[in-house]
Amino acid sequence: MERKRDGKVLGDVALFLSGNGRTAEVGFTLHPWARGHHYATEATARLVDYAVFDLGVHRIEASTHPHNIASVRVLERIGFLAEGIRREAYWVEDEVSDDAIYGLLAREWMSRRDQD
Ligand SMILES: CC(C)(COP(=O)(O)OP(=O)(O)OC[C@H]1O[C@@H](n2cnc3c(N)ncnc32)[C@H](O)[C@@H]1OP(=O)(O)O)[C@@H](O)C(=O)NCCC(=O)NCCS
Asked: Where is the N-acetyltransferase domain (predicted)?
């Protein structure tokens, strides 16, 4: 992610394709100083647009720690729906936590775009 006005690198947003390009997962991270401006929401929405309209992806997923409120809000603002919790599925070194799963279908994204 680069800021348009000065080209400064803010962080990264990634798309991982699977299922012969029909499904994908998104992930995002901002530098701490770049948080609080909805940059991740804007960049991830652009990437979803690209995935749906240019690549023809049918379903996009994301997973996050259930207590990661900023990440959950980014996903909810874009239109991802909470689909469930994978219990004790995410390990960081010796610590395990639940993993919240979010999903967005191409038709949901298209109908959201039509409403804007
Ligand atoms: C997740 C991340 C990219 C979001 O950054 P961001 O786009 O700048 O998000 P913002 O700071 O604008 O916050 C998004 C929303 O969460 C809310 N929020 C953030 N921290 C919050 C907190 N501690 N309590 C309540 N709400 C909070 C904001 O108010 C905002 O709400 P809004 O959309 O209703 O206005 C950033 O926090 C980050 O890089 N975190 C570390 C890496 C990470 O967790 N990545 C995701 C892994 S799945």
From this structure: 1-108
- Taking the C-alpha atoms of residue 63 and residue 90, their distance in angstroms, rounded to an integer, is 10
Which pLDDT belongs to residue 30?
98
How far away, in angstroms, is 37 Cα from ligand 1 center? Answer: 9
**Domains of the chain, earliest start first:** 11-115 (3.40.630.30)
CA–CA separation, 61 vs 87, rounded Å? 17
What are the φ and ψ backbone dihedral angles of 10, each rounded to 5 degrees? Answer: -95, -25
Rounded to the nearest angstrom, the gap between the alpha carbon of residue 35 and the centroid of all alpha carbons in its chain is 15
Ligand 1 centroid, distance to 65 Cα (angstroms): 12
Q: List, for the chain, all residue ranges whose pLDDT scores fall below the cut of 70.
A: none
- Per-residue pLDDT, 115: 84
What is the structure's pLDDT at 114?
A: 83
Residues with CB under 6 A from ligand 1: 27-30, 35-41, 64, 68-71, 73-74, 77
